[in-house]
Structure to design on (198 residues):
């Protein structure tokens, strides 16, 4: 009997200590209808960018998607931070290195400007995209794992970067996403700032 109680306590401890944490950011154009019990996400072509944050403690998470881009099923098996794109538009993003406000560069050199333009062009062309590079090209009806850290943050399209601070001596893990349209417009604006070499 004592052995049974010991193994029962051990199994309860094991189950309670199992860390199954998934943070899921659902990005849609207009409000998306999410039914966690049925495992469905329905999105229509509406106006405005909307994000919904889901915190789910489960080993396997899947959703059937019904969106303007069609129907699909997405699965999330590993713990961490995910983005599900139910917009009829590609979403592109990358990790943003933390910089203290006092050290932020207010003036950008022509060389840095050209590097930024080249980098944005590569992202739009879906080149140099990889989890190792911490940049992401998310097609409609796709779910992508952004980070193993479910506490990391996402700044979505059409939102401004917000301030972030170190917590317990650790830098914040932030990912900035844009619609592909935003990035194309950004490239044009940055190209205007370039000076032709003499």
């Amino acid at each position: 009997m004592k052995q049974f109680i010991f193994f029962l306590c051990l199994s309860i401890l094991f189950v309670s200590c199992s860390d199954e944490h998934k943070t899921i950011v659902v990005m849609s154009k207009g409000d998306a209808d999410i039914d966690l019990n049925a495992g469905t996400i329905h999105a229509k072509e509406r106006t405005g960018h909307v994000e919904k944050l889901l915190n789910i403690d489960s080993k396997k998470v899947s959703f059937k998607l019904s969106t303007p881009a069609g129907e699909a099923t997405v699965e999330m098996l590993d713990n961490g931070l995910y983005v599900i794109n139910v917009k009829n538009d590609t979403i592109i993003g990358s990790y943003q290195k933390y910089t203290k406000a006092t050290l932020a560069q207010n003036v950008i050199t022509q060389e840095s400007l050209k590097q930024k333009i080249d980098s944005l062009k590569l992202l739009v062309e879906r080149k140099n995209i990889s989890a190792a590079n911490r940049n992401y090209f998310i097609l409609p009806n796709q779910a992508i794992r952004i980070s193993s850290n479910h506490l990391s943050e996402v700044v979505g399209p059409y939102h401004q970067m917000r301030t972030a601070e170190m917590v317990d001596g650790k830098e914040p893990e932030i990912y900035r996403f844009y619609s592909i349209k935003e990035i194309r417009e950004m490239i044009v604006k940055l190209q205007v700032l370039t000076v032709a070499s003499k």
Q: What stands out?
A: Residues 21-98+131-179 form one domain. The longest strand covers residues 22-29. The two ends are 88 Å apart (CA to CA). Confidence is low (pLDDT under 50) at residues 1-17.
